[in-house]
Amino acid sequence: MKTQVAIIGAGPAGLMLGHLLHNAGIDTIIVEIKSRQYIEERVRAGVLEQGTVNVMVDSGVGERLLREGLEHEYIDIRFNKKPHRLNVKELSRGRSVWVYAQHEIVKDLVAARLEYDEPLYFEARDVSIHGIDTDKPSIRVVHEDRQQIVDCDYIAGCDGFHGISRRVIPDSVLRIYDRQYPFAWLGVLAEAPPASQEIIYAYHERGFALQSMRGPDISRLYVQCPVADTVEDWPDDRFWTELHARLETEDGWQQQEGPIFQKGITGMRSFVCEPMQYGRLLLAGDAAHIVPPTGAKGLNMAIGDIQTMTRALRAYFEGGSKDYIHSYSDTSLKRVWQMQRFASMLCYNLHRFPEHNTFEHKMQIAELNNMTHSKEAMRALAQNYTGVPVELFYDLD
Ligand code: FAD
Ligand code: DHB
């Protein structure tokens, strides 16, 4: 087989790349090790920056998102039992965030791809990458018990943190910047209307808590927990007790309880690999970087990479120029480090670290007060939370 771009992984990054390249008339094949059902049901992120919404809408897959997604103009940062509502839309001069689950984006992109009938192999096995340091790269894959060799011009490694793509970059070239956090998030989906229409980020002496939603009757809730915990350590009663204690306000605000139908624990890390390309291989999304989820950036960063990668591949296939391809990693990393800065700042200020002493707790409260009372700090928070447009990062040094 022959294609222009072989895409490894059908997460948001791989599917969006396939979609944007299809719109530009560039051929792709996408190979994915999991089944369609698995990727369409995998519960993960939920908050989309304005830029991600714009990409979905402008590329023709945003119809359901505009219909079913929930636009948010405010967020609430809660500490010392007080809510602090920030109008992020006004503070960022017109940009909002949208709640729309990641697996709904995956469903929309899979449906679009099947509709225009471009190759998308689910349950692929033994995927391997070859010749990235030559002009004739290829991937090998077993699909429906047939071994296939796919020759291509470029390979996009969109296969997430545990994928194979990053690992084919030689050790002598690859640099890893990594940090693990001494806590995790226990996340649940509950059949209960969210008590507040806003996403709430709460700092509390018992640990961080977050209230989000998936619709008018479904709450998406998280509490910080020890890194070694399993879901068996968290029967529903214990979860609700912790959530109420951490979100509590002086005026008696309370999240309504309801049957919990999904529960999972997510470890937390910050991770960047440099460079994000080697020869004919370009990496995007979690394959190249991970952020702690506090700022809801992971999915949005993946889409940012894809916008930059699409620009580079289009310039090559439409005009023969490799300039943007050569600068893909440098251009993307400037944005990635800015997002890392924001996500780690929020993570640092909103969680309880086991090693922190009372001085550090006081510093966290001072930071949170600054973030919610200084006009400049509020603007900076809102701009980063709703997402700085990708092009604005192109000028950083
Ligand atoms: P992925 O979504 O991981 O997609 C990669 C795809 O590649 C997968 O479908 C995988 O099956 C496939 N694959 C892997 N190996 C191969 C192979 N060898 N061959 C072919 N295919 C392969 N972000 C937030 O902002 N907020 C959150 O609340 C949040 N929660 C999260 C919870 C969990 C459990 C995880 C893991 C992540 C969470 N994230 C969250 C991060 C966010 O979901 C990711 O940043 C986002 O999924 C990145 O998209 P991606 O396409 O780069 O990678
Ligand atoms: C959600 C996840 C996040 O990481 C976040 O910061 C806000 C909301 C969510 O799943 O809705």
The molecules bound to the chains, other than polymers, are: flavin-adenine dinucleotide, 3,4-dihydroxybenzoic acid
Q: Could you tell me the strand content as a percent range? A: 25-35%
Coarse structural class: alpha+beta
Shape: globular
- Characterize the biggest β-sheet: 8 strands, mixed
**Quick check: average pLDDT?**
96
| Uncertain residue segments | none
Main β-sheet, spatial strand arrangement? 6-5-14-15-16-13-17-20
Instruction: Indicate the radius of gyration in whole angstroms.
Output: 21 Å
Oligomer, anyone? single chain
Tell me the helix content.
25-40%
Count of alpha/pi helices: 12
Number of E-type strands: 20
Q: What is the end-to-end distance?
A: 41 Å
Question: Which helices and strands, and how do they pair?
Answer:
Blueprint: E1 5-8, H1 12-23, E2 28-31, H2 36-41, E3 47-48, H3 50-58, H4 63-68, E4 70-72, E5 74-78, E6 85-87, H5 88-91, E7 97-99, H6 102-116, E8 120-121, E9 125-130, E10 138-143, E11 146-151, E12 154-157, E13 175-190, E14 199-202, E15 209-215, E16 218-226, H7 236-247, E17 260-274, E18 277-278, E19 281-283, E20 289-290, H8 298-319, H9 323-326, H10 328-350, H11 358-373, H12 375-386
Parallel strand pairs: 1-2, 1-12, 2-8, 5-14, 12-19
Antiparallel strand pairs: 3-7, 4-7, 5-6, 9-10, 10-11, 13-16, 13-17, 14-15, 15-16, 17-20, 18-19
Bound molecules: flavin-adenine dinucleotide and 3,4-dihydroxybenzoic acid.
